[in-house]
Amino acid sequence: MLHVLRTIERGMDAVLQRVLFLGMVALIGVMTLQIVSRVLFTAVGWTEELARFLLVWITFLGAALAYQRGRHIAVTVLVDNLPHWPRRLCRAATAVIAMGFLLVLVVVGYQYMDLQSFQTSASLRVSMNYVYAVIPLSAAIMIWYALVDLVEVFVADSADAAAACAGTAETPDR
Q1: For position 171, what pLDDT does the model report?
Q2: Distance CA 157, CA 8 (A)
Q3: Which of 41, 77, 98, 167 is most buried (most C-beta within 10 Å)?
Q4: Strands (E), the chain
Q5: Are 64 and 141 within 8 A, CB to CB?
């Protein structure tokens, strides 16, 4: 089961990396167009708005990718020095608390998206639903990553302990 979850996680990671890369390329292209058009021609009005929307999407999806890789700010000195079982319990509690917060973010993000559904952007005339949809989407992705972390706490550690007893301990992927 853990193998399947990790495979799905790696697939999501690969898609997220590509989306973020394309978003960054698009942001650089739009910003370059904005600078060139202001200096050489008449400013293209929609570039500033599109750059802002791309930055919002890149930020939230990048936060999801950073969560998956454990790159958010954390003070782990206490947990790292705990014995095996208390450390596992702390990791499990952290995953559950994160899932609770992220579930609230999904709900509130969806409500905010619904609240702004009537609004369209000034230059591009696109529904603001598309801009705000990244909030519940990125939170849902992070919930998945936290769920995989929670399963890993119990399944991977048990498998590692059994392998260590048998003398064939494996190094975990993450």
Answers
A1: 46
A2: 20
A3: 98
A4: none
A5: yes
Are residues 90 and 82 in contact, defined by beta-carbon separation less than 8 angstroms? Answer: yes
- Dihedral sign, Cα of residue 66, residue 116, residue 130, residue 99: positive
DSSP alpha helix (H) spans, 41-83: 46-68, 77-80
| H or E segment to which residue 111 belongs | helix 84-115
| Amino acid occupying residue 170 | E
Closest CA to 152 of 78, 105, 94: 94
Tokens of 2: 């853990």
**CA–CA dist 117, 153 (Å, integer):** 40
For the chain, the structural domain boundaries read 2-160
Please give the structure tokens belonging to residue 120.
């369209």
Compute the distance between CA of residue 36 and CA of residue 130 in angstroms, rounded to an integer. Answer: 27
pLDDT (tens digit per residue) in 86-105: 999 999 999 999 999 999 99
Alpha-carbon gap, residue 125 to 158, rounded angstroms: 53
Instruction: Report which residue type is found at 114.
Output: D
**Integer Cα distance of 3 and 59 in angstroms:** 29
